[in-house]
């Protein structure tokens, strides 16, 4: 076997996100919960950076990264300050430095989610509009498992304790034009990185949610 062929940018990226996510799950559940939760920004920045490395860069790609960050941050700022886009919610301290009460990491999270779900959607169909709807659906599915665990991890908390239907409508309204732009620009991401990151994000929040519902963290 040619082992050098296994040491590629893509394989190293996939190995690192699996290492960090699995370590985070184990650490939060079985060891120093608060310390591992506090390292969340590192995990998010690493995931975004590796996504950038594995994306074919062009003027359109960079414009979309900037657009996703900007639209995501504006939507979150409007949501936090006025409550009509996603509901009445506030951010905790875990996600780091804030701009107008919203962690800057949320802008990067919007970029990551749009890019990985858009890339996965490309494998389902060649239909432009179906790809856009599938991308939005994948984003909403991930949000469904994120919302119940977010307050426990001090990511964000809704005033009523749980995210309402209002929140998911807001997500869809923001996500849909970003998905349209992603597919219009024909963004190319190398290999299976988007699928691996999506699976890991889904497993991370689902496993923690199951753990909390059984014995708690």
Describe this structure in words.
With 217 residues, the chain is mainly alpha-helical. The protein has one domain. It has eight helices and four strands; from the N terminus they run H-H-H-H-E-E-E-H-H-E-H-H. Strand 2 and strand 3 form a beta hairpin. The longest helix is centred in the first third of the chain and has 24 residues.
User: How would the global form be characterised?
Assistant: globular
Provide the low-confidence segments as ranges.
none
Percent of residues in β-strands: under 5%
Compute the number of helices. Answer: 8
Strand order of the largest sheet: 1-4
Whole-number count of domains: 1
> What helical percentage do the residues reach?
55-70%
Mean pLDDT: 91
Structural class: mainly alpha
Order of helical and strand elements: HHHHEEEHHEHH
The radius of gyration is: 17 Å
Report the end-to-end length measured between terminal Cα atoms: 43 Å
Compact description:
This protein is mostly helical.
Descriptive keywords:
217 residues, mainly alpha, globular
SSE map:
Layout: H1 9-30, H2 33-38, H3 40-53, H4 59-82, E1 89-91, E2 98-99, E3 102-103, H5 105-121, H6 128-149, E4 156-158, H7 165-185, H8 193-214
